[in-house]
User: What shape does this take?
Amino acid sequence: MNLEEKKRAQIDRLLRQLPVNSEKRLVDIPGIYYGGGCSYMACRGLMMSPIEDILVITHGPTGCGCFSGINSRTENSGEIEIQYRGRCFSTNMRESDIIFGGEKKLLSAIEESVEMFHPKAIAICATCPVGLIGDDIVQIAKTAEERFGVRVLPLSCEGFRKLSGGWLHGGKMLVESFMGETEHEHGPYPIHYMSESYCGENKAVFKELFEKIGYDVVCSMMGSNTFERIRSGQQAKLIVLDTNKAIDEVPLTIQRKFGGGFFRASFTGISNIVASLRKMAAFFGDEELIARTEEVIAEEMKKIEFPWMAYRKKFEMLTAALFEDIFRSDSFSALSSDLGMEIVMLNQDYDSQDYTNDNFTLHISEKKYDALCQNASAPLPLFDKKENGRVYFRLCRAEAGAFLRIIRPSICFAGVEEQFGYSEAEIKSELFTSDERGVSYGGFSGLMNYARDLDMAIFMSHWITKKPEWVLKAEG
Amino acid sequence: MDGNSEAKNRNLQIDALNFCPPIGAMYAAFGVHACLPHSHGASGCCRFQRMEISKHYQKIIRVTSSMLQESSAVFGGEENLKTAVKNMFNVYDPEVIAVHTTCLSETIGDDMEGMAARLEIPEGKHLVWASTPGYAGSHLTGYSAMTEAFIRQLCRKTEIRRKKLFLIPGLLNPSDICELARYAGMFFDAMTVFPDIRGIMDFRTPRNERTYLPGGTPVGEIISAAECSDIIALGAEATFSAADVLGGFGPAAKKLAIPIGLNGTDSFIGTLSEMSGIPAPEALVRERERAVDVVMNLHPQLFGKKVALFCDADLSVGLTSFLAEIGMQPVYVCTGCGETGFEREIGAIFDKNGIDGCVRREADRYDLECFLKENPVDLLVGGSRGKILARKFDIPLVRVGFPITDRPLEYLTPVVGYQGCLHLLRKILCTLSEHDERNTCAEDLHIAESF
Assistant: This one.
């Protein structure tokens, strides 16, 4: 074994993927804080907004369209010049439209948008009242297609429908209505990278990575995309789904209709990226591609090796506690684990539809468990099972809180402090402890960005944890 | 001036200027101590709205929802509301729950009054509800509905009157309310500000979900509001209906525009002095003097400059008056969904100051864009979303109003009172200068231009 190989083996030993819970979802209980949105939000925001040349008309009162406009993530890929980018359209239903129906208004709104902006395709997103008053948007879409010569996609994504219904409905409608219409030239390894992180700065990172290896991203639902790319999306031989959302039904629909491969992957955290890239190369099975993949991995690793090792040394002693959510907990656990941190994962039974204090699961690594057994000041709770190097506990809320006090995590990500009242963690940066802030750390360089932010958070957190004498006195 | 009449008949709304009523109701409910706003609708409404408020204040805020789903759309939302209220009192322990309705619950015809009466409310706790369908009005309508609901449902009739002011400030930032309360405190020893978001919106939300920030109007003061001798309501669409209801209990009510600029503040202070029977203190006279001096000193840099204004209706009235009195020309004043009184009030300011301007009460940002294409202006005044137009037409933008989502801590600068007058002047002048200087080469930059 030469030096290069030895080094690679050494690095490979540092890579480890954490078990990911695919069951997780948001539990919606009336009157309990809820991080999710609604069906309209999922369909409009996640599925439709990123498509840069489909004009989205929100059929409903002014609010929904206006709120969702701000989160629109469309960006100019430079492929086409679009007059309606960065705008939000709505039919602005008023009281009289609710009483007498909004079909006429919708039809003329479509006519106006065609006259003013000449889009190739229009999507109509329905809001709550539309489904209730019975506006037939499917019929309106048909009429508009015939009359104005534009493709119109009616989406019944009323807010009261199931949340996951929103993106599934949007995705399936896109596939069923548009996909398979055209064909374009593409590279030898065409893929469909389905991920909401394929936009903005992250997109450039991913794009470079894929291009280096030789993949051609022909379509990217939820990510930066165009109408034309969706129409020719069937050309992708492999669908790589990188999201925390339970949206598998969309790639499965594509697969049923057009064939090709599909699996979930993750491009956040080095261990995940390396595993994902290897899995992709193995799918195509091409020797050259596999070799190229290893080459690129080694190349990227080399770039970050020194800072990575330096950060690992710094963060190895830390323990992070995470409450599983569908937003960012998986990313944070993967990144933290890559930095050598110990991960404490918490979640609550996803079947329960009531607010309870029971059925929490907490899991830690066996290594951490053994260390705790030797040093803990208080007796540990009995574990439920050991699996894949992790030790699982079934606890109630109070027990989980007490256990956290024994584990003493140094950082608690969003949800932990609120759920278990544990507030002694020493790193308290809002950047990580709030579930509202969006930060993405995709790609190899993403880990370095995360490490830098964490470093910053540790440095700044002393303002909260170290108080001057007079403050302590005043607080009693 | 022609205000692009073609656009009025458009069915397609392009870039709305206003939000829907529930967000206003939520904003008002946050002004009550230990109050938890609750959205009786689908799960998304409250998420959209709290995110908008979150971004304005750069902090987490928490709001609950009834999570109505398809079954509720058929059978009504009563079961969900019942569970929600029970859960909220159990888990988060608020003193008051402020329920506002949404498009969904209003369209399926949930009878809120009956439902509210059947709810089980723990001893010593309260529940207030307001009807705020998203398709009727703007966020000011919702703010108005919620403040009115609080007075109507909690306030007790009484014959007792104490020398006390009841101030209804409208949809403003905490810093504005601080200024208003400071002035009012010079005339009244006792005062209730409602809704009072001071100490709530400008402080971090406690992590512990059962802890509430010390700010906000205490519920007890709303219950005993009828004991106040005087009411002042500021703004029109957001506050006058609450003032009317409370005025019906006996206190004397005065309704004014939001006191932005010298004229507005003069009449606010005049009213305070008149109601309290106390002459204005010397310090206030000096404060006014300074504001007047600054205006006289700096107005040559502003005189005759044209402004397009896009804020909510109440703020627009105050701002138009301010801009006119410092010599600027607010030539286009628009709002997303204003009442008819809006056009009348702005028209009166135009007449008084001889401004050939255009006022639109049901505009969208595309109307404004069409206007700007034909009629170049020197300055835009409005919220964050106007930055797109600012860039498109290379016009400087002064950010005022709610929400400002792209510049942190903007909510710390007041716009009301004499202080607000100075802050606004500074903001406008700095923005104009920076815009000018961006187009000047380094060697030609003036180091001391303003004096």
Remarks:
- Residues 417-438 of chain B form the longest helix (22 residues).
- Residues 7 and 367 of chain B are 6 Å apart (CA to CA).
- Chain B has 17 helices and 14 strands.
